[in-house]
Design a protein that fits this description.
The chain is an all-alpha fold and about 850 residues long. The strands form three sheets. It has a two-stranded antiparallel ribbon with strand order 1-2. A two-stranded antiparallel ribbon has the order 3-6. Helix 9 runs antiparallel to helix 10 and helix 15 runs parallel beside helix 16.
C-alpha cells in the first residue's frame, strides 16, 4: 500500500473509533473533513488543492453565521497541528499556500493558544481581501488581535518608528473598518481605529469605492457620538485631540454645525494650528441665519468670548445682551413676576411647635444683624434677575441702613443680583451708592457693578470703566470689593486690560487678602488658558510671602487662582507643580493639590483620584511641622487653626476627587461609595469636605440618595460637617424649588439653636429658591457634554470659602457669596420644580 492510501486508511480507522453517538450527517461531515486533512499531505498538488477547497468551503459556510462553535471547527481541532505542519511545508510558489493560511487563521479562533496572535499571524500570510466571507466573528477576533499586536509593537518600539513599523497592520485596518461600518458595527470600527491610532481614517473613502465615504449621512451621528464618548477614557492628549478633530470634521462635512460647534467648544484652543475663533468663524460663515442663532445660544450658554461682527443680532445673542428680556418673558408667562419676601421662603408659619416660633422670633432678636444679613441674601437669591423686590429697590433705602458695616456692603451688592443682566437700569440704581458717605456702601456698589454685568458683553463695558479707580482706593474694603467685582464681571473673558489692572496688586500689595482676591479673580478671568505670566506672579508671591501673612484662610485663594489657570489642561500644569514643591509652607501643598485636581477636572482620571485618596488616607498622629507654622510671640500664642492649615490639603483633595469625577457618570457613582468610607474612617479635615464634594457631584440636581445622605450629615456631631451639609443641600437643590429639600431645611430652621446654623440654613433656603425656580447653577450643559470653565471656577471659589466657613462666610467675607452670580443661567436645571 502506498503512503496516501495508508493515510486514508488511518483516517477511516480513527473516525470509526470516535463516531459513536453522532448522527449520520455529522458522521459523514467528520469523515469528509478528516479525509480532506489526510489528502492535504498528498504529493499530488491537484489532490491537495481539491482537499483544501473542500475544507475551505465547509468552514466558510459554517462560520458565516455563528451562534455556537461550528461543527467543522470542532471536528478539525485534533488536526490543527497537522494543518499547521502542512502549511509550513508548502512552498511559497504554491497557490494554495495563501488559501491554507486563510483557513488556519479561521481555525485559530478556537484552537490557538491565548496571546499567540495566530489569527493575525496566519491572516497576514493569506489574502487580506474579502474578510467578511469568513463571518463577523472572525473579523471581530482578527480586529482584537490586531489591536493587541499594535499596542505590543508600540511598547517594544524603542527607535520611534511609526509608519513602516506597523504598515502590515494598518493594511488590515483598512479592510476591517469598512466591513464594520457597512454592517452597523460602529463601536468596533471606532475601537479598532483608536487602538491603532488611525482615527483620522474615518474621514476617508471605501477602498474599492472611492466615490463613497466611510462615514455617510446614515451613520455619522452614531459614529461621532461614540467617538466623543470614548474621549472620556483616552489619556493621551494627542490622541484625544485627533479624535475631536475627526469628530469636528465629520459633523462639519455633513452640515451638522451645532454639533460641530459643541466639539469645537470641547477642543478650545488645544489645536494650535486652528484656534477656536477660527473654527467658529468658519462654521458661522457656512450656515444660514436660523442655524447661526442656534449656535449663538450655545455659545451664550457656554459664556464664550467669540464675536461675530458680520451679524449684529447674532453677536448680541452670543454676548447675552438679550438674556434679560428672555428671562422676563419666561417669568411673565409663568406669572411669577411679583416680588417675594424672605418670609415667603422661610414659611415660619408652617411650624407646628413652640421651637418653630422660637427660631423665627427669638433667634433674630439675639442676633438681629445676622438675621438681617441672611434676609438680604435670601431676598437677592430669590428675586435674582427680576429687577424688583420689596427690600432694596423701593425708594428710601430703609433696608440698607438696617444693616451695619459688612451688612451694608452685602445689601448694596445685592442690588447687582436683583438687577442682574439689566445693565442700563441696574447701573442707574447702583450709581448713587458709589457716592455714599459710607465706605461699606461704596464697596457694595463696586461689587454690584460686577454682578450686574456678569456673563454680559455690553458695548459700554461699565466694569472696566468704573472699577479700576476703586481698585486704587484708600479704603481696603473698597479695594477688595472692586477686585472681586472685576473677577465676577469678566470671568472667562481673558481681558488684557483687566490683567493690567489686577497684576500690580499681586506684585506690590502687602495686604494678603487683596493679593488673594486678585489671584483668584485673575484665575477666573483667564481660566484654562495656562497664562504663564499670571502663574509666575502668583508663585513668586507665594515664595516671597512671610509665613505669618499666609496664615489667613484667604491665602488658599492663591493656589485656587493658580489651579484655575490650568483648569482642564492636564499635563500642562506639571511644570508648575514642580515649582510649588519648593514652597515649604502648608499653603504650597494646598496649592499643589488644587492645581493638580483642577488640571484634570471632569476627566474621570482614575490615577488622579487614587492619588487624592492617598492624600486623604494620611494620618495626622505626627503632623508635619513647617517653618513658621507653630511660631509664637510674647503677645500671641499659636492660633488653634494652624494645625488645620497643615491638613487643609486633605480637604482640598476630597473636593478634588469630586472635581475629577464629575462629568463622568460611572466615575461619579463609584466616587459616592468612596465618600462613604471617608465619612466613616477619615480625619476631621477629610470629613468636613465630604458634604461639599457630594454637592459638587450633583450641582442643581437633587438626587434622592444624596439628599438623604446630606440630611443625615446635617445632624453630625462635628459642627463644621453639619454646616457644610446644610450648604450642600442648598447647592444640590439650587434653583429647583425641590419640596423635599425645602421641608428638610424648614425643620432645620425650626430647631436651630445656634445663630450661625440658622444663618447657613437661610442661605441654603435662598439657594434652593433661586430665581423662583427658574435658575440653575450647574456648570454643565448640552446634555452634560460641555462644561463652562468659568462657571466651575466660581463654584470652586465658593466651596473653598466653605472649607473654613467660620473665617469667611460666617465672618466678614460673606460677600464672596456673590460668586454665585456668575454661574447662574435660566432654565437647564434637572430638578423638581414642585413647590
Amino acid at each position: 500500500m502506498d503512503r496516501p492510501a495508508a493515510s486514508c486508511q488511518n483516517a477511516k480507522d480513527t473516525t470509526a473509533s470516535r463516531c459513536g453517538g453522532l448522527s449520520p450527517e455529522d458522521q459523514t461531515l467528520m469523515e469528509g473533513l478528516e479525509l480532506a486533512v489526510a489528502r492535504l499531505q498528498d504529493a499530488n498538488p491537484v489532490v491537495v488543492s481539491t482537499a483544501l477547497e473542500y475544507l475551505v468551503k465547509e468552514v466558510r459556510n459554517a462560520t458565516s453565521s455563528m451562534t455556537s462553535v461550528p461543527k467543522p471547527l470542532k471536528y478539525l481541532r485534533p488536526h490543527y497541528d497537522t494543518l499547521k505542519h502542512c502549511h509550513a511545508m508548502a512552498k511559497e510558489s504554491v497557490p494554495s499556500k495563501k488559501l491554507m493560511a486563510d483557513l488556519l487563521a479561521v481555525l485559530a479562533m478556537t484552537m490557538s493558544e491565548p496571546g499567540s496572535h495566530e489569527i493575525l499571524h496566519f491572516k497576514k500570510q493569506g489574502t487580506i481581501n474579502d474578510l467578511g466571507s469568513w463571518g463577523h466573528e472572525f473579523v471581530r477576533a482578527l480586529a482584537g488581535e490586531l489591536g493587541a499586536e499594535y499596542t505590543a509593537r508600540q511598547l517594544s518600539d524603542k527607535k520611534g518608528r511609526k509608519d513602516n513599523f506597523t504598515a502590515d497592520l494598518i493594511s488590515l485596518v483598512d479592510e476591517i473598518v469598512p466591513f464594520h461600518l457597512q454592517h452597523n458595527a460602529y463601536a468596533e470600527a471606532v475601537d479598532l481605529l483608536i487602538e491603532t491610532q488611525s482615527i483620522s481614517k474615518l474621514l476617508g473613502n471605501y477602498p474599492l469605492r472611492p466615490e463613497k465615504t466611510l462615514v455617510d449621512d446614515s451613520n455619522f451621528k452614531r459614529v461621532c457620538l461614540y467617538l466623543l464618548r470614548c474621549g472620556t477614557y483616552i489619556a493621551d492628549p494627542d490622541d484625544l485631540k485627533c479624535l475631536r478633530q475627526s469628530a469636528f470634521q465629520i459633523y462639519r462635512r455633513h452640515g451638522y454645525c451645532s454639533a460641530a460647534l459643541g466639539v469645537a467648544l470641547k477642543m478650545g484652543d488645544d489645536d494650535e494650528a486652528t484656534p477656536f475663533n477660527t473654527r467658529c468663524k468658519e462654521l458661522f460663515d457656512t450656515t444660514d441665519g436660523l442655524m447661526r442663532k442656534q449656535m449663538a445660544f450655545l455659545l451664550a450658554r457656554h459664556h464664550s468670548n467669540f464675536e461675530y461682527v458680520e451679524d449684529l443680532e447674532v453677536d448680541a445673542i452670543i454676548g447675552n445682551n438679550k438674556l434679560k428680556s428672555y428671562y422676563a418673558d419666561l417669568g411673565r408667562d409663568l406669572d411669577i413676576l411679583d416680588a417675594k419676601t424672605p418670609e415667603d421662603i422661610y414659611k415660619s408659619h408652617l411650624g407646628d411647635s413652640a421651637s418653630s416660633r422660637a427660631s423665627s422670633t427669638s433667634a433674630p432678636n439675639v442676633d438681629s444683624a445676622r438675621a438681617n444679613l441672611a434676609a438680604t441674601f435670601v431676598n437677592a437669591f430669590v428675586n435674582a434677575g427680576f429687577c424688583k423686590d420689596l427690600l432694596m429697590t423701593p425708594d428710601g433705602n430703609t433696608w440698607l441702613y438696617k444693616n451695619k458695616e459688612h451688612g451694608m456692603l452685602a445689601a448694596a451688592a445685592s442690588l447687582g443680583m436683583i438687577m442682574m443682566w439689566n445693565i442700563e437700569e441696574g447701573l442707574t440704581i447702583i450709581d448713587k451708592f458709589l457716592y455714599s458717605n459710607e465706605e461699606y456702601v461704596r464697596a457694595g456698589a463696586c461689587l454690584a457693578i460686577g454682578i450686574v454685568s456678569s456673563s454680559i458683553r455690553h458695548e459700554s463695558d461699565p466694569p472696566i470703566a468704573l472699577l479700576p479707580e476703586h481698585v486704587e482706593s484708600s479704603s481696603s474694603i473698597i479695594r477688595s470689593a472692586a477686585i472681586v467685582g472685576l473677577g465676577v464681571a469678566y470671568a472667562g473673558s481673558g481681558r488684557e486690560d483687566v490683567l493690567d489692572t489686577l497684576a500690580p496688586i499681586i506684585t506690590n500689595s502687602d495686604a494678603m487678602i487683596e493679593v488673594a482676591f486678585a489671584a483668584v479673580s485673575l484665575g477666573q478671568i483667564y481660566t484654562g488658558t495656562c497664562n504663564s505670566d499670571i502663574a509666575s506672579l502668583i508663585v513668586q508671591k507665594l515664595m516671597e510671602a512671610s509665613d505669618a501673612s499666609l496664615e489667613i484662610s484667604e491665602s488658599n485663594f492663591l493656589g485656587l487662582g493658580l489651579g484655575l489657570l490650568f483648569f482642564g489642561r492636564g499635563e500642562k500644569g506639571d511644570a508648575m507643580l514642580e515649582v510649588l514643591k519648593t514652597i515649604e509652607h502648608p499653603v504650597g501643598l494646598c496649592a499643589s493639590v488644587t492645581l493638580e485636581t483642577c488640571a484634570y477636572a471632569a476627566t474621570g482620571d482614575v490615577l488622579q483620584i487614587q492619588k487624592m485618596l492617598h492624600i486623604c488616607a494620611e494620618q495626622r498622629d505626627s503632623p508635619l511641622i513647617f517653618p513658621g507654622s507653630v511660631e509664637t510671640t510674647e503677645n500671641q500664642s499659636a492660633a488653634p487653626k494652624k494645625p488645620n492649615l497643615v491638613a487643609r490639603h486633605q480637604s482640598m483633595a476630597v473636593l478634588g476627587i469630586a472635581l475629577v469625577a464629575t462629568g463622568e457618570d460611572i466615575g461619579a457613582e463609584m466616587t459616592l461609595r468612596t465618600f462613604d468610607h471617608l465619612l466613616h474612617y477619615g480625619e476631621p479635615p477629610v470629613r468636613c469636605a465630604v458634604p461639599l464634594a457630594l454637592s459638587l457631584l450633583r450641582i442643581s440636581y437633587p438626587d434622592y440618595g444624596i439628599v438623604d445622605q446630606m440630611s443625615r450629615l446635617t445632624h453630625d456631631a462635628d459642627n463644621q460637617v453639619s454646616l457644610n451639609a446644610i450648604v450642600g443641600l442648598g447647592l444640590v437643590g439650587a434653583g429647583t424649588n425641590n419640596s423635599r429639600i425645602a421641608g428638610l431645611l424648614r425643620l432645620l430652621a425650626e430647631h436651630a439653636r445656634e445663630p450661625s446654623t440658622l444663618f447657613v440654613v437661610r442661605l441654603a433656603q435662598g439657594l434652593l429658591h433661586m430665581g423662583k425656580g427658574l435658575l440653575t447653577i450647574s456648570p454643565f450643559h448640552a446634555d452634560r457634554t460641555l462644561i463652562s470653565k468659568a462657571a466651575m471656577g466660581s463654584i470652586l471659589t465658593f466651596l473653598h470659602c466653605c472649607l473654613d466657613m467660620k473665617q469667611t462666610i460666617l465672618d466678614k467675607n460673606h460677600y464672596l457669596l456673590s460668586e454665585t452670580a456668575y454661574y447662574r443661567i435660566p432654565g437647564e436645571g434637572k430638578g423638581t420644580n414642585d413647590v
